[in-house]
Amino acid sequence: MTASKITNKNETKVKVSTKPIAKVVKKKSRKKDSRKVSLEKLSMRATKSIGSVESLIIHTIVFITAFSLVLFGVSLERVLLVLTTILSLEAIYLAIFIQMSVNQNTLQLREVERDIEEISEDLEEISEDIEGIEKDIEEIQEDMEEIQEDMEEITEDIEEISEDLEEMSDHEKSEK
Protein backbone atom coordinates (compact mmCIF):
# COMPACT_ATOMS: atom_id res chain seq x y z
CA MET A 1 0.00 0.00 0.00
CA THR A 2 1.39 3.40 -0.88
CA ALA A 3 0.29 6.71 0.53
CA SER A 4 1.12 10.24 -0.42
CA LYS A 5 0.11 13.51 1.24
CA ILE A 6 -1.86 16.08 -0.65
CA THR A 7 -2.04 19.37 1.19
CA ASN A 8 -4.35 22.30 0.75
CA LYS A 9 -4.35 25.48 2.83
CA ASN A 10 -6.29 24.16 5.82
CA GLU A 11 -6.54 20.40 5.41
CA THR A 12 -4.33 17.40 4.87
CA LYS A 13 -5.57 14.46 2.79
CA VAL A 14 -3.97 11.10 2.35
CA LYS A 15 -4.30 9.43 -1.05
CA VAL A 16 -4.18 5.63 -0.85
CA SER A 17 -3.37 3.43 -3.82
CA THR A 18 -4.40 -0.25 -3.80
CA LYS A 19 -2.42 -1.31 -6.87
CA PRO A 20 0.64 -2.58 -4.97
CA ILE A 21 -1.62 -4.55 -2.59
CA ALA A 22 -3.29 -6.30 -5.51
CA LYS A 23 0.12 -7.20 -6.94
CA VAL A 24 1.26 -8.64 -3.61
CA VAL A 25 -1.95 -10.66 -3.26
CA LYS A 26 -1.58 -12.01 -6.80
CA LYS A 27 2.07 -12.94 -6.17
CA LYS A 28 1.14 -14.75 -2.94
CA SER A 29 -1.70 -16.51 -4.71
CA ARG A 30 0.64 -17.64 -7.51
CA LYS A 31 3.19 -18.89 -4.97
CA LYS A 32 0.47 -20.77 -3.11
CA ASP A 33 -0.79 -22.31 -6.38
CA SER A 34 2.72 -23.30 -7.44
CA ARG A 35 3.37 -24.90 -4.02
CA LYS A 36 0.06 -26.73 -4.26
CA VAL A 37 0.93 -28.02 -7.73
CA SER A 38 4.39 -29.08 -6.49
CA LEU A 39 2.87 -30.97 -3.55
CA GLU A 40 0.36 -32.65 -5.83
CA LYS A 41 3.14 -33.72 -8.18
CA LEU A 42 5.15 -34.99 -5.22
CA SER A 43 2.20 -37.01 -3.95
CA MET A 44 1.64 -38.54 -7.39
CA ARG A 45 5.34 -39.44 -7.71
CA ALA A 46 5.40 -40.88 -4.19
CA THR A 47 2.29 -42.95 -4.82
CA LYS A 48 3.74 -44.30 -8.07
CA SER A 49 7.15 -45.06 -6.60
CA ILE A 50 5.86 -46.82 -3.48
CA GLY A 51 4.19 -49.49 -5.57
CA SER A 52 7.36 -50.25 -7.54
CA VAL A 53 9.93 -53.03 -7.43
CA GLU A 54 12.58 -50.48 -6.44
CA SER A 55 10.55 -49.58 -3.35
CA LEU A 56 10.29 -53.24 -2.41
CA ILE A 57 14.05 -53.65 -2.71
CA ILE A 58 14.78 -50.48 -0.70
CA HIS A 59 12.40 -51.51 2.10
CA THR A 60 13.90 -54.99 2.21
CA ILE A 61 17.43 -53.54 2.48
CA VAL A 62 16.29 -51.16 5.26
CA PHE A 63 14.72 -54.03 7.23
CA ILE A 64 17.78 -56.26 6.85
CA THR A 65 20.05 -53.36 7.84
CA ALA A 66 17.89 -52.50 10.86
CA PHE A 67 17.81 -56.06 12.17
CA SER A 68 21.51 -56.56 11.48
CA LEU A 69 22.25 -53.67 13.87
CA VAL A 70 21.47 -56.14 16.66
CA LEU A 71 24.59 -58.07 15.60
CA PHE A 72 26.66 -54.90 16.17
CA GLY A 73 25.48 -54.44 19.73
CA VAL A 74 22.39 -52.25 19.35
CA SER A 75 19.58 -53.52 21.57
CA LEU A 76 16.66 -55.22 19.86
CA GLU A 77 14.19 -52.99 21.72
CA ARG A 78 15.87 -49.84 20.39
CA VAL A 79 15.95 -51.21 16.81
CA LEU A 80 12.26 -52.15 17.01
CA LEU A 81 11.35 -48.78 18.53
CA VAL A 82 13.11 -46.80 15.79
CA LEU A 83 11.88 -49.12 13.04
CA THR A 84 8.24 -49.02 14.17
CA THR A 85 8.39 -45.23 14.56
CA ILE A 86 9.77 -44.82 11.04
CA LEU A 87 7.22 -47.28 9.64
CA SER A 88 4.38 -45.49 11.41
CA LEU A 89 5.44 -42.13 9.97
CA GLU A 90 5.85 -43.70 6.54
CA ALA A 91 2.37 -45.23 6.77
CA ILE A 92 0.86 -41.87 7.72
CA TYR A 93 2.50 -40.10 4.80
CA LEU A 94 1.60 -42.91 2.42
CA ALA A 95 -2.02 -42.69 3.48
CA ILE A 96 -1.98 -38.93 2.89
CA PHE A 97 -0.30 -39.27 -0.51
CA ILE A 98 -2.68 -42.01 -1.56
CA GLN A 99 -5.70 -39.97 -0.48
CA MET A 100 -4.36 -36.97 -2.41
CA SER A 101 -3.98 -39.09 -5.53
CA VAL A 102 -7.47 -40.55 -5.03
CA ASN A 103 -8.87 -37.02 -4.72
CA GLN A 104 -7.04 -35.92 -7.86
CA ASN A 105 -8.27 -38.98 -9.76
CA THR A 106 -11.80 -38.27 -8.56
CA LEU A 107 -11.57 -34.72 -9.92
CA GLN A 108 -10.26 -36.03 -13.21
CA LEU A 109 -13.10 -38.55 -13.40
CA ARG A 110 -15.61 -35.76 -12.77
CA GLU A 111 -14.07 -33.77 -15.62
CA VAL A 112 -14.25 -36.82 -17.88
CA GLU A 113 -17.87 -37.36 -16.83
CA ARG A 114 -18.69 -33.75 -17.74
CA ASP A 115 -16.94 -34.19 -21.06
CA ILE A 116 -18.92 -37.36 -21.74
CA GLU A 117 -22.16 -35.55 -20.89
CA GLU A 118 -21.24 -32.71 -23.26
CA ILE A 119 -20.39 -35.21 -25.99
CA SER A 120 -23.71 -36.98 -25.42
CA GLU A 121 -25.56 -33.68 -25.70
CA ASP A 122 -23.62 -32.85 -28.86
CA LEU A 123 -24.49 -36.27 -30.30
CA GLU A 124 -28.17 -35.70 -29.54
CA GLU A 125 -28.01 -32.32 -31.28
CA ILE A 126 -26.21 -33.85 -34.26
CA SER A 127 -28.83 -36.61 -34.39
CA GLU A 128 -31.60 -34.02 -34.38
CA ASP A 129 -29.77 -32.08 -37.10
CA ILE A 130 -29.43 -35.25 -39.19
CA GLU A 131 -33.16 -35.93 -38.81
CA GLY A 132 -33.84 -32.37 -39.95
CA ILE A 133 -31.50 -32.81 -42.91
CA GLU A 134 -33.23 -36.09 -43.82
CA LYS A 135 -36.59 -34.31 -43.80
CA ASP A 136 -35.13 -31.53 -45.93
CA ILE A 137 -33.77 -34.09 -48.39
CA GLU A 138 -37.18 -35.77 -48.60
CA GLU A 139 -38.82 -32.39 -49.26
CA ILE A 140 -36.21 -31.58 -51.91
CA GLN A 141 -36.84 -34.96 -53.56
CA GLU A 142 -40.57 -34.27 -53.57
CA ASP A 143 -39.91 -30.82 -55.03
CA MET A 144 -37.65 -32.39 -57.67
CA GLU A 145 -40.42 -34.84 -58.58
CA GLU A 146 -42.89 -31.97 -58.87
CA ILE A 147 -40.43 -30.01 -61.00
CA GLN A 148 -39.90 -33.09 -63.18
CA GLU A 149 -43.66 -33.41 -63.63
CA ASP A 150 -43.91 -29.69 -64.43
CA MET A 151 -41.07 -30.07 -66.94
CA GLU A 152 -42.90 -32.95 -68.61
CA GLU A 153 -46.07 -30.86 -68.77
CA ILE A 154 -44.14 -27.90 -70.20
CA THR A 155 -42.49 -30.19 -72.75
CA GLU A 156 -45.91 -31.49 -73.77
CA ASP A 157 -47.23 -27.91 -73.99
CA ILE A 158 -44.25 -26.93 -76.15
CA GLU A 159 -44.84 -29.90 -78.43
CA GLU A 160 -48.51 -28.95 -78.75
CA ILE A 161 -47.58 -25.33 -79.47
CA SER A 162 -45.03 -26.50 -82.05
CA GLU A 163 -47.65 -28.67 -83.71
CA ASP A 164 -50.12 -25.78 -83.67
CA LEU A 165 -47.51 -23.50 -85.21
CA GLU A 166 -46.74 -26.04 -87.90
CA GLU A 167 -50.41 -26.41 -88.67
CA MET A 168 -50.82 -22.64 -88.84
CA SER A 169 -47.78 -22.35 -91.01
CA ASP A 170 -49.06 -25.10 -93.29
CA HIS A 171 -52.48 -23.49 -93.36
CA GLU A 172 -51.00 -20.08 -94.34
CA LYS A 173 -48.95 -21.70 -97.07
CA SER A 174 -51.97 -23.44 -98.43
CA GLU A 175 -54.00 -20.20 -98.51
CA LYS A 176 -51.42 -18.42 -100.53
Share of helix, binned:
over 70%
Report the mean per-residue pLDDT as an integer: 83
Order of helices and strands: EEHHH
Number of helical segments with 4 or more residues: 3
Strand content: 5-15%
The Rg value, from CA coordinates, equals 44 Å
Q: Give the strand order of the largest sheet, numbering strands 1, 2, ... along the chain.
A: 1-2
Kindly name the structural category.
mainly alpha
State the separation between the terminal residues, measured CA to CA. Answer: 114 Å
The counted number of beta strands is 2
Shape: rod-shaped
The main sheet comes to:
2 strands, antiparallel
Characterize the structure shown:
By secondary structure, this protein is mainly α. The protein contains three helices and two strands. It has helices at 19-50, 53-68, 76-175; strands spanning 2-7, 12-17. The chain has a two-stranded antiparallel sheet. Strand 1 and strand 2 form a beta hairpin. Helix 1 packs across helix 3 (76-175). The longest helix is centred in the C-terminal third of the chain and has 100 residues, at 76-175. The chain starts with a strand and ends with a helix. Residues 1-18 have low confidence and may be disordered.
Sum up the structure in keywords.
two-stranded antiparallel ribbon, rod-shaped, 176 residues, mainly alpha, 2 strands
